[in-house]
Amino acid sequence: MFNDIGPLELVTIVVIAVLVFGPDKLPKMIQDVARTIRKIREFSESAKQDIRNELGPEFKDFEFEDLNPKTFIRKQLENDDLGLKEIRNGFDLKKEMAEVTDAVHSRESESSTSSPASSGPTGGTVDMTKKPTSTDPDERPPFDADAT
């Protein structure tokens, strides 16, 4: 319950409790807190037992800890009926990203070194690989969603 409280924090809590409640009232306060925690646990366990009884025998393996999403996923991945471990082991993200990066860099280097271009009348370069545009007035220009 208090797994993340260190010894220094525990000493600090005790000192503050002694200062607030006083040394004569502190034992009674500790007993009251312990009794309250015990009653809460008993109430919780009885509620869990009632729910298990109401669910019936088909849910006899039901655990309330399985309702935590992390626990549920961990438990389902341990079963591995779908072969997820094979898929996960067969997929290397670094390798895939390296292949994509190499493909992109090779396309960039090919387009920059081997694109046929000729000098236009204004002195600039004209890409001859582009398809000429239609002069039909009824034809709509291509739509570029990224440009808008």
UniProtKB/TrEMBL annotation:
Question: Keyword annotations for this protein?
Answer: Cell membrane, Membrane, Protein transport, Translocation, Transmembrane, Transmembrane helix, Transport
Q: Where are the transmembrane segments?
A: 6-22
Membrane topology per record? Single-pass membrane protein
The record's family statement is:
Belongs to the TatB family.
Gene name linked to the record: tatB
Where in the sequence does UniProt note compositional bias of the Basic and acidic residues kind? Answer: 98-110, 137-148
Do the record's keywords include Cell membrane? yes
Principal location class: membrane
* InterPro entries recorded: TatA/B/E (IPR003369), TatB (IPR018448)
* Its job: Part of the twin-arginine translocation (Tat) system that transports large folded proteins containing a characteristic twin-arginine motif in their signal peptide across membranes. Together with TatC, TatB is part of a receptor directly interacting with Tat signal peptides. TatB may form an oligomeric binding site that transiently accommodates folded Tat precursor proteins before their translocation.
By what name is this protein known? Sec-independent protein translocase protein TatB
Record localization: Cell membrane; Membrane
> Where is composition skewed (Low complexity) in this entry?
111-120
Description of how the protein assembles with itself and partners: The Tat system comprises two distinct complexes: a TatABC complex, containing multiple copies of TatA, TatB and TatC subunits, and a separate TatA complex, containing only TatA subunits. Substrates initially bind to the TatABC complex, which probably triggers association of the separate TatA complex to form the active translocon.
Chain intervals for the UniProt region annotation (Disordered): 98-148
Tree of life domain: Bacteria
Q: Which Gene3D superfamilies match?
A: 1.20.5.3310
